[in-house]
Structure formats: structure tokens, C-alpha cells
Amino acid sequence: MENSTVVNASTQNQTDFFGDFLTWTFTEKDPRYLQPFWDLRLGYEQYLESPLFPVFISVVFYFGLCLPFCLSDIFCTNQGWYKKYKIQPDKEVTKAHYYDTLTLTFWNHILFIMPAAVGQWIWTPSTPLPDLAPTLFDFLWHQLAGLFIFDFQYFVWHMSHHKIRFLYRHIHSVHHRYNSPFVWVTQYLHPWELVVVGFLTTTNTWFFNSHPLTVWSYMIVSIVVSVEAHIGFDFPFLLHNLDLTGNIGGSPKHDMHHQKPLTNYQPFFNHFDKLFGSFCPPMSAGGKKSKELQEYEQIAKDCKKNL
């Protein structure tokens, strides 16, 4: 009886310690691990408080992130690794492709993003910068929640623009001009789609009254996952290859959406596509088709024969 009491007391102490540790780490007692990074803002408040700063960081980061993949498509096509990791290695990215996509991207930024930024600069008040950094818990879960919310929003928007013929023909078909994505296809969008996607991305952190550092990081993370979905490569270090749950789509899944437009509507994850029957197994690096994809295509072929 005494031994049982000792064991129970020991177990209770371990549980209390673990609970106290989580409480200390992930609540108001969080020692603000991000504070040293947040303190780098000191002396630059007049720039960071500006309503233009989120626009500036988004545009600069987007083009900076796209550039390495752009250079790869220009200068590395004859290198072994290029064909090895390209999802559709038989498709070439030409100068005409670059001219077309960059021209539309340029005019979208000039005619829509820039006026929106100017309006935001005129009518939006400066961003208040608190003295304390966000807690690590808030910093992480706000961004993850924002991604899941956007994933659902865009799934509904995306599916409706494929199912409703008018919306596809006059809006979303622009993005599907290329069935083999490359990096500049990311923002190769009809202006209405650009505005909607930008609005949803910008406003999702408003639900949580997120810290400015969290908002800026969320914008960067959103750009990373959007660009990565369109690069046309399946590198082993990408997040979907490290995900043990199989719930992250990544570039192969969205690449397959451009090949089979009535599949894979979710931009980041897989759960809604699997739930509603729109999931298609993707090709992997080098154009390799998995057993699941071969079975999917055979079933689709058999269904067409029976129509």
C-alpha cells in the first residue's frame, strides 16, 4: 500500500512538473523567447509602423524568393539535378513564358497592388508596436491557424471557380494557362483573384488580434508556401517530404492540379480534398508516377469507357 502511494505521488509530481513547464512556456509566464529579435526594431519604429511596411516586405520577399528558381530555369536546365527534381522534366520554360508571366505580374502590381498600397498609406493608421514580443505559443499557433483558415477559404473559392463555368472562363482560367507550373505562375492571376487572395491572406490574422511580428511572419510564411506550390520541383528538403502525416500537399500536389484541373483544390493541405473526393495522388520528382496515381488514372480511364 505504501509503495502504491509512493508511485502515485511520484507520478503526480511528474505530471505537475510537466504541466507547470507547459504553463510557464506557453502562457503569460512565457519568458518571451522572441524578445531579443523583437528588440531589433528599436531605432526603426518610424519605418515599421508605416502601413506600407507589410506591402514592402511582401513584395520584396516575393521577388527575392522567386529569383533563385527563375535563375535555375534559365541556367541549369542541362544539369543532372534539374531533370532529377523537376516534376515535369519534359516541359521547358521558355523566354516567351517568362515574358508573358512577368508582364502580367508587373501590370497587376502597378494597376492594383500599388494603388491599394497608396490607399492603405493614406487611410490606414500607423501600426502600434508594443514593447513586448509575442509569446512563442501565440506566435506559432496564430500563424498555423491562419494557414488552416486560408486553406478552407481558398478551397471553397477555388472549387467554385472550377465548378461554375462563368467564373472559370472569365477569372480563374488565366492562372491555368500553364499546365506545367514554374515560379512566376504563382501570381499569374486575374486581378479579381489577386485581390481576393491578397485580402484573405491579409485579414486572417485579424481574427486573433495578432502581434505585428506574428502578422509579418505569417505573410512571409504564406508567400513561401504559395511560391513553393508553383516552383515545379520536388526537392527532398521541402516540407511535404518531411511530413509524416501526409497532410501537406506541397508542389507535387498543386502541379498535379494544373495537369488535372478538377482535382486538388486545397492550396496547402489535403484533408478537404480527401474528404470531398477531389484528391489526386501527385507525381514526384523526375515525373515518377506512384502506384496510387497509376491506379487513379486507370479508374478514371475505366469510368470514361463506361460513359
Oligomeric form of this entry?
Answer: single chain
User: What integer is the average pLDDT?
Assistant: 89
Number-wise, the strands total 2
In angstroms, what separates the terminal alpha carbons?
Answer: 73 Å
Strand order of the largest sheet: 1-2
Proportion of residues in helical segments: 55-70%
Order of helices and strands: HHHHHHHHHHHHHEEH
Number of helices: 14
Computed over alpha carbons, the radius of gyration is: 23 Å
GO molecular function: iron ion binding; oxidoreductase activity
Domain Fatty acid hydroxylase: 144-278
Keywords: Membrane, Transmembrane, Transmembrane helix
GO cellular component, one term: membrane
What does this structure look like?
This protein has helices spanning 2-26, 35-38, 45-48, 52-75, 80-85, 95-123, 136-163, 165-170, 191-203, 212-230, 239-242, 250-259, 271-275, 291-305; strands spanning 283-284, 288-289. With 307 residues, the chain is mainly α. A two-stranded antiparallel sheet has the order 1-2. It is globular, with a radius of gyration of 23 Å.
